[in-house]
Amino acid sequence: MQQFIDSYDFTGKKAIVRVDFNVPLNENFEITDDTRIRRAMPTLRKVLEKGGSVIIMSHLGRPKKVDAKFSLKHIVDHVSACLGVPVKFADDCMKADEAAAALKPGEALLLENLRFYAEEEGKPRGLAEDASDDEKKAAKAAVKASQKEFVKKLASYADCYINDAFGTAHRAHASTALIADYFPDDKMFGYLMEGEIKAIDNVLKHAERPLTAIIGGSKVSSKLAVLKNLVGKVDNLIIGGGMGYTFIKAQGGKIGLSLHEDELIPDALEILKTAKEKGVNVSLSVQTVAGQKFENDTPQRIFDTHDIADDWEGMDAAPASLENWKKIILASKTILWNGPVGVFELPNFAKGTLQIAEDLAEATRNGAYTLVGGGDSVAAVTQMGYADKVSYVSTGGGAMLEAIEGKELPGVAAIRG
Ligand code: AMP
User: What are the tens digits of pLDDT across the range 334-352?
Assistant: First the structure.
C-alpha cells in the first residue's frame, strides 16, 4: 500500500531514500549546479524533522566500475551544508550495515554511487565485443540473479522506502523500482516525485480545457511517440522548431535547407490525419526566420514557411507564427511545452522561443496551468529567467518525455502498485 510522507510516522524509523544527486562536477570535483541536491531537501528534511533518519542513495554519472571520479564523496560536504546536519558516508553501498544500524533519529548517511555495481542497472558489464549471443544471455542472467541480493541488501538497511528521483523514474533499476517490493506497506513518493506526478496528471489526466501542447525541438523522430500520444488528447497541437519543417514538406511546402526527415513524412501525414479525424487543431509555423548558415551572425530573412528559398534554412519562428500561437496559448486553460521553437542557443534565433516563454508566463498569470518539461525547453525557460513564471518546470528530461509519450514509468508504478 502506498503511503504519504505527510501522514507517515517516521518516529525512530530509518528511511532509505532514492534521490537524484547526479550533479555536474568540474575538473576539481566542485559542483557546478546543485539544483538536484536542493530539490531533494524538502523530503530529506521532513523525515529528519519527524524523528526519522535517512539513508540517501543515488547514482552519479555513468561509471562502468568503481571509479573515484564518480564518487559521491565529492558531494558529501555540500549535502551536509544543504541539509544542516553532518552527513556520514558509506564508501561501499553494499557494506553499509553498521553505519545504517548506528543511525540515530535526525541523522543522515549517504551511500556511495550505486552504479559502481552493475546490479543497480541490471545490465552486464565487461562483455567482450565479440561475445556470442549465448554468452550475452548468460551474462545477463548472472547479473539479474545477483541483482536480487543487491536489492535485498539495500532494503535491509531501512524500515521504509522513499523514491524522490524523478530523473530516473523511467528506469526499472534496483533502487528506483525493484527495492519497493521489500516495503509493500512502507513505500512512498518524495515531494519532488509527487510534484512531478501531479504536474503530469494535471495535463494528461484531468486537464482543464482547452488543452494545448507546444512541441518543438530538432527532430520528429525523437518526438514521434510524444506526438502520437498527444494528438489523441489535446485540443490544440502547436508544432514548431526544426521538426516543424518535416510537416511543412509533407504538406508540399518548399523548405529550402531547413532541417527535415524525409523518412518521417508518412508519420507526419498520419499525425495530421489523426488530428483531423479527432477534431484537433494543429498549428504549424506560417512564417519563418531563416539564416544562410547555421551560425549566430548569419544574415536573416523572413519567409512564408511553405516557400523558403533554396539556399536558406529555417532557424526560428517569425512574428506571424508567433501571433497565431499566442492567440491559441492565451485562450487555453492548460498548456504543455516541450522543445524550443527555434535554435535558441544562438541569441539571434532565440526570439521565438523567448516569445513562447513570455506567452506561457502571461497565460499562467491569467490562471492557466502551464507545464514545461522533457528536453531543451527547460533549459530555455531557465536561461531566459521564466522558470518561476510558469506553473511547473519538470526536473526529469527523459522521464518527463516518456510520461508524455503515455508510458507508465517503472519508478512510479513500483510505488503505486
Ligand atoms: P530537442 O532536444 O528535441 O527538444 O531539441 C532541441 C534542439 O532543437 C535545440 O538544440 C534547438 O537548437 C534545436 N532546434 C530548434 N529549432 C530548430 C531549427 N529550426 N533548426 C535546427 N535546430 C533547431
Answer: 999 999 999 999 999 999 9
Ligand 1 pocket, 296 CB below 6 A? no
The reply to whether 159 and 229 lie within a common domain is: no
Which residues contact residue 30 at a Cβ distance below 8 angstroms, ignoring those fewer than 6 apart? Answer: none
Q: Is the pLDDT of residue 374 over 80?
A: no
Residues 116 and 223 in one domain: no
Q: Using the mean position of ligand 1's atoms as its centre, give its distance from the Cα of residue 310 in Å.
A: 20
Instruction: Let me know whether 142 and 279 are in one domain.
Output: no
Give the 3-state secondary structure percentages of the chain, helix then strand then coil, rounded to 5: 40, 20, 40
pTM over 0.70: yes
Three-state DSSP class for residue 117: coil
Range(s) of the domain holding residue 27: 2-189
Which DSSP state fits 410? H
343 lines ligand 1 (CB under 6 A): yes
Cell 529528519 sits at which residue? 48
Co-location of 146 and 230 in the same domain: no
* Residue 411 placed within a domain: no
Q: At which residue does the C-alpha cell 501531479 appear?
A: 198
Q: Which three cell numbers stand for residue 36?
A: 538536484
Residue 88: inside a domain:
yes
